[in-house]
Amino acid sequence: MTTRLIFAVLLVACVLEGCSSRNTGLPGDDKVRAEVEGQPITDYDIDLAVLSTLGSGAAGKLDEKQRRPVLESLVASRLMARKMEAQLDDQHKAALERSVAAYREKLLVEQYLAKNAPPAPANDEAVERYYQEHLSQFGALATKTYEMLATTRALIPTERTAFLEAAKTADQQPDWGALAEALRQQGLPVTLRQGEVKASLLHRSLLSKLEGLDKGQPAVIAFVDGKAHLARIVEVQRTEPKPLSEVSGEIRNKLEATSLREAIGKASKQVLVGAKVVYL
């Protein structure tokens, strides 16, 4: 066992201090492996320490030689706990009891949720659906370039009508520079602009329309303070997201955390029914 693992066993054993007794009905609790000043340490205590520090994969698989260091760590921690308890004043003892009670409550809550409101597991279908719906979170990026026919001032009604009429066939014009010149020849105050679709560069009414637009789709029109804007996407550069295989674990954790919050919320409503609670 590594030093770090032994220390973890010590922490677990401190929680077990005072909890072991014979004839509890717990598996292995009738097999006492050591007594520390009259307090037994049983096979159940050892199994619990192994489960807490090494996980379920190691539980029940260690032979007697491998279990011996765990037992020795439990003995040492039991002695440390007794000596530390003797040094505590009343305030620190009270704080310790609250910590133990809080840990006990946490375990009971986990067991209640597992029995009465188990969170739904994140299956492969849910993981893939989240991935497809949130590609930007995993590096997918579409840099869009637009070109826009925009008026330099607010339009009077006749100019507005002429601009809207020109907009009807603008998608059929490959050269908007020539179109802008033609509109100027008609007396419309039109200029041609180009740039990237960025929130810092565009009015929100234009931004919202261009963000949902792709290359080749019909141009969109918007009026801002009386000024007319006709815009289309002329280029899209795409950055591929990380593959699903690299981020599936992250997504699964996120979905399970959300499911757990929902389960806790559901369970909270259930236990509050008929309960007497007074907030002071």
Structural class: alpha+beta
- Helix amount, in percent? 40-55%
Mean pLDDT: 87
- Strand/helix succession: HEEHHHHEHHEHEEH
Number of DSSP helical runs: 9
- The value of Rg in angstroms is 35 Å
Q: How is the main sheet built?
A: 4 strands, antiparallel
Parts with pLDDT < 50 across at least 5 consecutive residues: 5-11
The total of beta strands comes to 6
Describe this entry's structure for a reader.
Strands 4-3-6-5 form a four-stranded antiparallel beta sheet, with helices on both faces. Strands 1-2 form a two-stranded antiparallel sheet. It is elongated, with a radius of gyration of 35 Å. With 280 residues, it is α+β, with helices and mostly antiparallel strands. It has helices at residues 3-16, 43-54, 64-87, 90-116, 124-133, 157-167, 176-185, 204-211, 244-272; strands spanning 32-36, 39-42, 141-151, 190-196, 220-224, 227-239.
Topology (SSEs and partners):
Elements lengths: L2 H14 L15 E5 L2 E4 H12 L9 H24 L2 H27 L7 H10 L7 E11 L5 H11 L8 H10 L4 E7 L7 H8 L8 E5 L2 E13 L4 H29 L8
Antiparallel strand pairs: 1-2, 3-4, 3-6, 5-6
